[in-house]
Amino acid sequence: MATVREVIERGRSAKLKGDRRIAIIGAGIGGIAMAYALEQAGISDFTIYEKASSVGGTWRENVYPGVACDIPSHAYSFTFALNPEWSQSFAPGEEIRQYLENTCRQLDLNWRIRFGKEVVSARYRDDGWHLEMADGDSAVVDAVIACTGFLHVANEIGLPGIERFEGEVLHSAKWRPDTDLRDKRVALVGSGSTAAQIIPAIVDQVGGLTIFQRTAQWVFPITRERHSDEQKRRLRGDVARLYEIYDRIIAESQRDLGALSAGDPETTRRYFEECSNNLALVEDAGLRAKLTPDYQMMCKRLVMTEGFYEAVQQPHCDLVTSPIERIEPHAVRTADGAAHAVDAIVLATGFKTKEYFRSINPVGIDGITLDQAWADGISSFATVSFAGFPNLFAIGGPFSALGNQSYITGAELQTGYIIRLLKMLEDSGARALAPRPEAEQRFKAENAAAAQGTVWLSGCKSWFLDENNNFQFWTRSPDAYVEMMDEGPRRADFQLFF
User: Fold this and answer.
1) Which sequence ranges are marked TM in the entry (predicted)?
2) Which residues pair with 30 in a beta bridge?
3) So what's the pLDDT on residue 456?
4) What is the signed CA dihedral for 361, 362, 365, 370, rounded to 10 degrees?
């Protein structure tokens, strides 16, 4: 059986004439992966439009204390730019941002990027996609590849009275570099992966930390082992070893997460035991009860971090489970009537995960907008293309999230599928293509059907589901996703426009 890396390389092996104008939206992980794949295929007429002044995507935007990846560093890497220089087994955010910048520099991609160009409108016409920028600039291209991801619009929840708060209010995705929380009484709202990273990072600096938890999380322990200079030196001269490490980590992740999603009892027992032993580090029975989830492990995305339970047991740290009723000028008032005096509020409330590339406001055939097409829920075909929107493709689009898997791996797999779509377009002589509506509906139905009987429908609320309990992530095994990407598109599933 082929490795994931071999499937990635096979997917982008097609050679194209390169006579189409292509716009990539976003210079984060997806944009970099797509740019490399286009160049490998022989396409040179493409431009990357980036709203910010530098590359990096989510790793540029998220600079909160403790930000790090929960995927092993040697697997959270492009297959075409494996990195022997990772400082530790789970890299901090700033190091990942630097890695992405270095990769762009090594691939000589920066000249292709138009920084400060936020695409705010994309309208399809017979002569292609007409793009409008926030600064009034415009462009016409044959195809658009949206690489905006799905973790880029902060979920700034509207807490009643927050506008009256007289202290500092921060969202984790909009952290200000000059923020100083030393000796302050801090309220932290949230309990997911971001909160679990921030809490250990700030607990020793603040005067007091009150955590407002809506839902307890299963926390899988990881250890951030430092890589020695000698380890890095050996890897610099051994590319084969880097590939071996990458292949092993990805294979283990595919195996374990596939087994967990299928309900394999032995794998589930092993992960549950790790999480339970981690939770047992909490000595106080009352606090441990508050931190114990009331849903099955893996119903939500597993939080993977270190030092969380040690941090919440600090004497100046308090865990509150009563819902927030309102924010007062100097306090957070909860439903039980308690007023928790604080000097600063940190919102670790995540992202609006259903935004995807809505910000570019695509308008497809017959003037149908993306919001209209998605009125009954997000949609895609094979996670990369969209009925009614010819030559619009996406990296990290609807149904592409693979739980606790590497986003980079998923993005690289998708680039190969898109290259094959462009090859299909070239071979057909058509000017555009889009999935047939019935093919897209079939794909959505198969994805929903695969979730039946899984842990994801066992009763919890998570960002995996929308407000109507429709899935917005991949519900089958990781191996099944790799197989779909490897098989590539079928002509019968697509409508061609001549």
Assistant:
1) 21-38
2) none
3) 78
4) -70
DSSP state of 493: G
Tokens standing for 76?
Answer: 């959270």
State if pTM tops 0.90: yes
Give residue 157's pLDDT: 83
User: What are the beta bridge partners of residue 319?
Assistant: 211
d(CA 386, CA 494): 10
User: What pLDDT does residue 163 have?
Assistant: 95
CA distance 59 to 96: 7
Task: Give the tokens for residue 165.
Answer: 């708060």
Residue 353 has pLDDT above 80, yes or no: no
Question: Which residue matches tokens 């090594």?
Answer: 106
**Which are the contacts of 279, defined by CB distance < 8 A and separation ≥ 6?**
219, 288, 291, 292, 309
C-alpha distance from residue 264 to each of 270, 448, 469 (Å):
10, 20, 24
Q: Tell me how far apart the alpha carbons of residues 139 and 163 are, in angstroms, rounded to a whole number.
A: 40
Band the pLDDT of 451: cuts 50, 70, 90: confident
Rounded to a whole number, what is the distance in angstroms from the first to the last CA of the chain?
39
Of 199 and 454, more confident: 199
Domains along the chain with CATH numbers: 4-153+352-497 (3.50.50.60), 155-217+300-350 (3.50.50.60)
